[in-house]
Amino acid sequence: MAEYKATIGLEIHAQLRTKTKMFSWSKNDPDENNPNVHISPIDLGHPGTLPTVNKEAVKHVLKVGVAAGGKIADYTEFDRKNYFYPDIPKGYQISQYKYPLVTGGEIAGVKLTRIHLEEDTGTSQHDKGDYSLVNFNRAGTPLMELVTEPVIHSGEQAAFFAKEFQLLLQYLGVSYANMEKGEMRLEANISVSTDKGLGTKVEIKNLNSFKSLEKAVSFEINRQTNILENGKEVEQETRGWHDQKQVTFSQRKKEGSADYRYFPDPDLPKLKISEVPEFDVQKIKANLPILPWQKREEYQFFKLNQDQIELLVSNRVLGNLFDQVSVELKGIDQKKILANYLTSDLVGLGNGEDLGKINVKSLVSLVEMIVSDEISSRGAKDLLKKMFEEGGHAREVAEGNGLLQKSDKSELKKIVQKIIIQNKEVVAEYKAGKETSIQFLIGQGMKETKGRANPQVLRKIFEELLRG
Description:
Blueprint: E1 5-15, H1 55-67, E2 71-72, E3 75-76, E4 79-82, E5 92-95, E6 102-103, E7 106-107, E8 110-119, E9 123-125, E10 133-135, E11 142-148, H2 155-172, E12 184-193, E13 202-207, H3 210-229, E14 237-242, E15 247-253, E16 263-264, E17 271-272, H4 281-286, H5 292-301, H6 306-314, H7 316-326, H8 331-350, H9 360-371, H10 377-390, H11 394-400, H12 409-422, H13 424-431, H14 437-448, H15 455-467
Helix pairs in contact: 2-3, 5-6, 6-7, 7-8, 7-9, 8-10, 9-10, 12-14, 12-15, 13-14, 14-15
């Protein structure tokens, strides 16, 4: 059997966070439920209308390009990509072809070809029986397209890259990149060959989740491999992904760039990036927030485990809370304790997105009480739940609900003496040399105090009385 090599390149579209659309004054609102509310004559392609460039959208793309280490173009222009579809009222889409805003760069070890800016299309609804409806609210929304080099070789690697790109967009604040809402859409170009060259490229469009991307790419690699194994040729085409059947299916023959008859848009000015103060690359670089890979390094310094790091990096609600609390804590050990309670107990309470009535000061106090042995592990879990549901200051909530540990030796000594009298056989085993028997006695002490006793203090009292 010949050895086959799979080569994958990705195209990712992401809607940008701006107040208005790419070329008009219409509101950019991806959450609008009523159809055709945020539209204008420009969005609908009325004759005589003139588009203007959204400066904020351009700046967003430049931020991504700078973060990825790409080359920022000094000269750029917009082109018309001509094709007919009901959700494109002008009969063309304004995009960038020959002069993209960004070329090159690298994210998650994957080299990039280009990042350019275009306008989104409207949305068609085909579930109306014998007719379809078109909603133009999305038409003209600023859309960034990233194209990778064909350097990915598996479905797993493709999904990992897409996740990292989504994180970057969210950290930079340029896109919500919510895939469930269609704010980030994935396409994969896959070819399989037996030599160092590339095979016939097949594109899979409209993948709406990382899992779908991984499974579709893996399926397509196997499909093309089987075709070649049987001595046949792979046909260049565009395919879709059937989520229920877990297979790709043919949609149409693949178009080439010549089919779109690209030409510079005559209604839009050419841009000289260096002439626009807001586009100054050095200023953009200096004002970049901390990036996902930098945040990972920071968490690794705190000696968190890898699962905790990934959860805090990917979930910015939880990660931001950790960052705010950790600056108030002393030493790495306290930060590790905080991470343990956030990534296990708090996630269990609110799925990592809902922080309930938790506040920063109470979490600082909670960790300090744990470190000083004022509260047990069990008590800390109960206290966190109370704080999540009801709010309040940690110490006051702990005192009000009897969650602080009992460490008063004179009070605990009476309980220990009672347990020794009630468990004569276990005491005899301990005195005969069975050291582990003391754990049972400590457990009885915890039970007697409803988990409020300090187990270290209990152990010390038991040892003093049984060895005395």
